[in-house]
Design goal:
Layout: E1 7-17, H1 23-31, E2 35-46, E3 52-62
Antiparallel strand pairs: 1-3, 2-3
């Protein structure tokens, strides 16, 4: 077996999202930080024009095979 180190990292992100589905842009943003294990929207504000400001908190995994 290899000596691969797996670690968990807590991530907090603020995103400005256009109108439409949320899942894909959230997953793309989280993937830049590692493999998401769990995440939650902890704040959301609707803005003029349909945009949304969203705060996410997540735990991501690093070093997975």
């Amino acid at each position: 077996m290899g000596d691969a180190t797996v670690r968990l990292q807590r991530v907090s992100l603020e995103l400005m999202l256009e109108p439409g589905p949320l899942l894909e842009p959230i997953e793309e943003a989280l993937a830049q930080h590692g493999a998401p294990l769990r995440w939650a929207i902890t704040a959301c504000t609707a803005l003029p024009g349909g945009q949304r400001w969203i705060r996410l908190e997540a735990v991501v995994l690093h070093g997975a095979p």
